[in-house]
Write a structure and sequence with these properties.
Layout: E1 11-23, E2 27-33, H1 35-40, E3 46-49, E4 59-67, E5 72-78, H2 82-88, E6 95-102, E7 114-120, H3 124-136, E8 142-148, E9 158-159, E10 173-174, H4 176-180, E11 185-189, E12 197-198, H5 201-209, H6 214-217, E13 220-225, H7 228-241, E14 245-248, E15 264-269, E16 272-277, E17 284-286, H8 287-290
Parallel strand pairs: 7-8, 7-13, 8-11, 11-12, 13-14
Antiparallel strand pairs: 1-2, 1-6, 2-5, 3-4, 3-6, 4-5, 9-10, 14-17, 15-16
Helix pairs in contact: 5-7
């Protein structure tokens, strides 16, 4: 019997918490020393981490950034339930077991170098990881990152210094880190935050894509992560404009390594419908495979 593709690629790090950032809306960024995970992680992969020594069940969290040389990963999460509340109470020097990296990530296509990255809420971290990876690949790819949130963003926003033709004039707020990297970003919210597009992030993406001609659309791929309704709306936007789209799904997980199949979702394949495990068969899938009926 052939080994499963993910065998031998998932590691366990006895990680040390290096830093903790606390942000409004009960959002936290943990930097954890996890050299094996950092060395093998790709944009879209995630880690399964312990929240507390007395809580046996781990929690799956998207990887936001890695430093392969320094051997650390960063995880952004919002408190949802007692497990993540316990994780939010970790302090520098505490130990956190990190199982990862897990999952199939995003696959940019050099033939479509204009990458539209859409992150909603806790779906923001993979977009930051992907944006940084695209930047590190030189001038081949040209990412634009759109983020949406109905709670304060987990960073201090500021007006962007990078012009994005086709973006609504009043939508100028950005993520400073991306701006400093030379990657344009724009923010969307219904909460009335200054400089943000007033509406859903998918509507912002739809409006921007509508300004592009056929040649420009032929260079676009959409990458998205966020709540399921947002992903379905993104799939509809992609279909409307005739561009490929990859989505990273969020599901409850127990083992996160493919054993329990508790995270299985229905996916359309060339051989017909099939149940696929989000943890190791995903979390990234073609949008049309997950949302074949997304209305254009």
């Amino acid at each position: 019997m052939n080994a499963r593709p993910h065998r031998g690629t998932i590691f366990v790090d006895d990680g040390e918490v290096l830093s903790v950032e606390r942000h409004p809306g009960e959002q936290f960024i943990l930097r954890i020393a996890a050299p094996h995970c950092a060395g093998a992680a790709t944009p879209g992969s995630f880690a399964h981490v312990t929240c507390d020594p007395l809580l046996p069940m781990r929690r799956p969290l998207s990887i936001m950034r890695v430093d392969r040389e320094a051997g650390w990963i960063e995880l952004l999460f919002k408190i949802v339930g007692p497990g993540l509340r316990l994780l939010s109470q970790r302090e520098p020097g505490d130990r956190v077991s990190v199982l990862g990296p897990i999952g199939r990530g995003f696959t940019p296509d050099p033939a479509r170098p204009r990458c539209l990255l859409i992150g909603g809420g806790v779906g923001i971290p993979p977009m930051i990881f992907l944006a940084e990876a695209l930047r590190d690949r030189g001038t081949t790819f040209k990412p634009l990152v759109l983020m949406g949130s109905e709670i304060p963003f987990p960073f201090r926003t500021r007006p962007s210094t990078i012009l994005v033709p086709g973006i609504t004039a009043g939508a100028i707020a950005c993520m400073p880190l991306l701006d400093d990297w030379g990657i344009p970003s724009r923010l969307a919210s219904l909460a009335g935050y200054p400089g943000c597009y007033e509406g859903y992030v998918t509507a912002l993406a739809d409006e921007w894509l509508a300004t592009l001609d056929a040649a420009a659309l032929g260079e676009i791929t959409i990458f998205a992560c966020g709540p399921t309704p947002m992903l379905e709306a993104t799939a509809a936007v992609a279909r409307r404009h005739g561009v490929p789209c990859q989505v990273s799904l969020e599901e409850f997980m127990a083992c996160a390594v493919g054993g329990c199949a508790g995270c299985a979702v229905r996916v359309v394949t060339p051989d017909g419908p099939a149940m696929k495990r989000v943890c190791v068969d995903g979390p990234v899938f073609p949008a049309e495979a997950v949302f074949p009926g997304a209305s254009a």
